Amino acid sequence: MKRAFLKQTAGCLAGILTAAAVLAGCGRSVRSDGTVPSPTALTPVQTDASDDYRTSYEIFVYSFCDSDGDGIGDLPGVLSKLDYINDGDPATVNDLDCDQIWLMPVCPSPTYHKYDVTDYCAIDPVYGTMEDFDALVEACHARGIRVIVDLVVNHTSVEHPWFQTAAAYLRELPPDWEASEDYCPEFGYYHFSREAQNGYAPLAGTNWYYEARFWEGMPDLNLDSNAVRSELAEVTEFWLRHGVDGFRLDAVTSYYTGDRNASVAFLSWLTSAVKTQSPEATLVGEAWAAQDEYARYYESGIDSLFDFAFAGQDGIIASVVKGNRPAADFAAMMESEEQLYASYNPSYVNAPFYTNHDMARSTGYYAYDDGSRTKLAGALNLLMTGNAFIYYGEEIGMKGSGKDENKRAPMFWTDGGAGADGNCSGPPEMDRFDMKFPSLAAQQEDPASVWQYYRDAVRMRRSIPVLARGTTVPHPELSGDALCVFERQAPEGAAYKNALVVINTGEEPQDLPLMETYKEPLCALVTGEERVTVQQGTVHLPAFAVAVFSAEE
Ligand SMILES: [Ca+2]
Ligand SMILES: [Ca+2]
Ligand SMILES: [Ca+2]
């Protein structure tokens, strides 16, 4: 591992004064005026179907695209926007180019968010039909987009027939009789108790209580029950049969509240059950906890866990971009977590994300920002290893904070309100507020928009394979409060090269000596008009700029 860099004083750069000469002499991708091009000219590497190193897009179907004019997003709406997510043609650049989507719950549910399921093997009629789902999966696969669906197995809806059957049984049970699964199997699907307990809700019309950790409308399943486990195995088999490529697992720390070992053991069972059904299926778990805690869930053998430490308004990405932490921390924290996760599961694939449907949207993190910080933070997420997730609407800097409904506002396709170009009405309880940045349609016409930047950042990630697949080697000696320098080193035997990433997180331009090992600039991302340049052995980084260099053979 070569960690020492040499200033450009030797080799083929010796004595060369201009970048034009560099270009001519060494075949590098700088332009004749020394500017490093945007990633637009790069070509995304088409990933094998089994490749877990993805750029994923989280879709709240309810608020994404309405195809039938009822104001609620639906599956045909998602299908109609696939050309936007990824048109399947690497040559075109008017799409976001994501290669995986995560559909938030699509099963029948009494709530708008659908995290309380009443039937695990059907589509909520407001979203469409099973045929619509099949058509969507088929169209995704034809474009190289994998599909994962939300699997909410900690709890059901209180309206699920399992719970309704158990509740009816208990209501009819004479008060002095023992309740038994022998008479009502569904009684054993949940945790019922005659005692009031922490996390339990009273069952109306009885002296019974049931475990419901989130709210009384979501009774927790008894995950010890073999009957429940066999129901859940049928559920995963059902969706795999319908072509899904994996599952996003909701609320895994709540499987057994307060008992991590039991939750990890159940996660291990679920992972094995799914892998037995489909060895290539991928699982990503939501273990919303401190990093040391969620890291332990990799002991289950699960592929991926959402990387909460970097997300949200107090996460590492936002802290670095706000200047509350040194830029160098970004690389140092990636290196340390890669080692931590690998210590529990050597084949883990990180699942970095920046925001999700439970978090305030990121544009609101930065007061008085002209968009530069919104852009750079998006790039930091996409510079992390593994399977990086973008929450729909972040790529156009949508706003939304406060109550949950505001975080799930309609995708802002175009001006004109609900109904225009698939714009949805949004959750009924959502506040009405104006967006900070223009609609997607307007941003696609503006070369300086947040959207164009995100599109370029995705293209960078997808065109330079080591960025998602390598390991991070920080260079603290070159980094500082507003400068972050790290290598991404390819695994042994990989067919792609190492890369060097330099990031300016501050408002002041920075100059850095060009490194002997990484002389070939691949691309740069800038948030304003000034470009990254390479001249006379120096890399010039404008405010908030990112540049990536390739290792020479
Ligand atoms: Ca609709
Ligand atoms: Ca394309
Ligand atoms: Ca539970």
Describe the structure using short key phrases.
553 residues; alpha/beta; 7-stranded parallel beta sheet; 5-stranded antiparallel beta sheet; 14 helices; globular; disordered N terminus; binds calcium ion
Please provide the count of β strands: 18
Using only C-alpha atoms, the radius of gyration works out to: 25 Å
Low-confidence stretches: 1-27
Quick check: average pLDDT?
93
Bound molecules: calcium ion
Category from helices, strands and their pairing? alpha/beta
Amino- and carboxy-terminal Cα gap: 14 Å
Q: Sheet with the most strands?
A: 7 strands, parallel
* Helix fraction bin: 25-40%
Shape: globular
Strand content: 5-15%
How many H/I helical runs?
Answer: 14
Trace the largest sheet across and list its strands.
9-8-7-3-2-1-10
Question: Can you offer a commentary on this structure?
Answer:
This protein has 553 residues and is α/β, with parallel strands linked by helices. The chain has a domain of 51 residues. Helix content is 25%, strand content 14%. The strands form four sheets. The protein has a seven-stranded parallel β-sheet with strand order 9-8-7-3-2-1-10. The protein has a five-stranded antiparallel β-sheet with strand order 11-12-13-18-15. A hairpin with an 8-residue loop joins strand 11 and strand 12. Helix 11 runs parallel beside helix 13. The relative contact order is 0.13. The N terminus is likely disordered. Bound molecules: calcium ion (3 copies). One calcium ion (CA) binds next to loops.
